[in-house]
Amino acid sequence: ATPDAWQEEVLEAFPHHQRIAMPASKGPGKTCTMAWLAWNFILTNEYSNIAMTSISGANLQDGLWKELAKWHSRSPLLQHLFEVQATRVICKEAPKTWFMTARTWQKTASAEEQAATLAGFHADYVLFLLDETGGMPSAVMASAEAALSSGKEMKLVQAGNTSHRE
Hints:
There is one protein chain. The protein is α/β, with parallel strands linked by helices. 37% of the residues lie in helices and 22% in strands. A hairpin with a 7-residue loop joins strand 4 and strand 5. It is globular, with a radius of gyration of 15 Å. The longest helix is centred in the middle third of the chain and has 17 residues, at 57-73. A seven-stranded mixed beta sheet has the order 1-7-6-2-5-4-3, sandwiched between helices.
């Protein structure tokens, strides 16, 4: 794949910044960029944990999760090291401690329940990927922000259309 110029900027900035936001309209490649970042992070950080969420479970499955599976299917290395499951990507060597996971919340969830969506990640290397953050409850973002203070390398990448807010 050949990244667009703005995608190259994000890919180059990722190792040097704890937080990255990609505001853009529909269609420029935000989801693809997030998938590339996820695969990079999990490949370069042993026993890393990646949590991802979106404005709905369907949006997560049909967008970012599908994009992860696409790049997995194109890479013999990724296929050898990782298995893509319904809601997790696991490292075959350490499936319980080296993974990506899809997290969602019920539409009727309280702010406390929404915040719990990204709670409980304790690892040296953690990446949170938040897709469609313009429509995401603020409690989810606050939970991710709070987790950035521990670990060796903690990162937050968010993407979304800026035309609407919660």
